[in-house]
Write the structure tokens for this entry.
Amino acid sequence: MTTQARFPAMSRLLHWLMAAMIVAMLFIGVGMAASVSARYELLVAIHRPLGIAIFVLCVIRIVNRFINPPPELPDTVPSLQRFTAKASHVVLYALMFIMPLVGWGMLSAARYPIVLYGPLRLPPILPHDLTLYAWLRDLHTGLAYLFFATILAHFGAALFHGLIRRDGVLESMAS
Amino acid sequence: MKPFWFGAGPASDAGVIVRLAAIGAVMLSVAAAFADVGGWFSPARLTQDRMMAAFQDANGTHAGFRRNHAKGVCVTGWFESSGQAAALSKAAVFRPGRVPVVGRFALAGGMPFQTDAPAKVRSMALRFLVPGGEEWRTGMNNIPVFPVNSARGFYEQLLASSPDPATGKPDPARMKAFLAAHPETVRALALIKQREVTSGFANSTFNSLNAFRFVDAAGASVPVRWSTVPVQPSATDSAEPSAAGDKNYLFDDLIAQIAQHPQQWRLIVTIGQADDQTNDATLPWPAGRRQVDAGTVTIDRASSEDGGRCTAVNYDPLVLPSGIEPSDDPLLSARSAAYARSFTLRAEEEHEKPLSAVTVQEVKAGGNS
């Protein structure tokens, strides 16, 4: 096995914390959009503050990435895989930054109160506009499916590194 | 030279296939779990989409309109709190003072061009715009109890009342079967039938039907239901002159009455006792429960939905300020979910929406179309 540098501890903490939150968020989202049961209310009540928490952590994570740069991929990784890895990470970062903003924006355009917890609410960030809401609502769904697919690919690639290539890339984050 | 794609890894060929298959299986399982949560594998599960499809079966397609309570007008005014409910709920709306209100009067049902008739269920929706504070939205009906007590019951009632494709009319056998399976609906419909039907919106009492909880500053909570009770004198339906041949007579009367002078309702909060059921909207609470007069709603302006201030508002019953909490009534979650999907659909269809039944001209003409 090649010696592969590990991600810094702060990066690993942020990665795994956000991984759990984002995966939970995607499952809650797809579940609540299909539900008329008593669970709907609870799922929505979790979805809003969890989304905002992901946004805050995402900003921290971007700052952390500059302070603690990730280790380079091993030289043995072929160039197309290297490009795909880089591109998928750009997509993941973009989505974890944009998705909460689209959610916040669409609730704003619909003039739903953006309730975090109890009396704690966020102000609207967009004008009250049905057409804008419709556009953002569809975008929110579309990006959610893209996010899920990208995370699934990222997960598969990590397993590929760990089980097939055995190049220490999985361990650089997972150990 | 570095390999371009699948380079020779350190793994042996024999194990690679097995391990690749394992990776594929894990990824498929995650994707399947996601699809399962989304309802793809459970055609019997009642989802928002299936609820919307049932509305379409029952009412036809009406692009851009609310899926239920489709025919309506917007109104504005204010709520003057008496301060009397402030001891029961910490919500700012109940402190003495005045709060602007954006409301909507409507007829139940998904047909935006239905003809007004005395027995059709009337609704009043209100949005209390507490300055710098938390909003409260409520939708109320002029019936004493709700005909069903679950989302499934509502869905089955919709299906049972949908026109049969063969005859174009609802099949009485389906409604009979529905009622046989839902004794709570039979009991509720009997109470609904007994209600006093007044001459119009302005002298109707509107009820929250669902129970909620008021929470005071100390955190103590009581079950409540609320009603808007008209200050205008009650008059039972007496075919007024405007009623003859006017498809919108209920709305036109309301518009004319508001134009004459502001119309008022008292917001009456009924406080339930510990053993009063809060999870079944088909059951009335016993008479004689304590009531608090929380204040007066004054409506001084009506406008068409086209360009009106209520149009881009979803009167979601779960938009509540702290101090008002949902009860354990499953209909609250169901209404919230269904309203949200209806709101999204009509927002998407906004550009195809025809003019509403009650037009801008009709309101300008003082409601006398």
Q: What stands out?
A: Chain A touches chain B through 49 residues (CB under 8 Å).
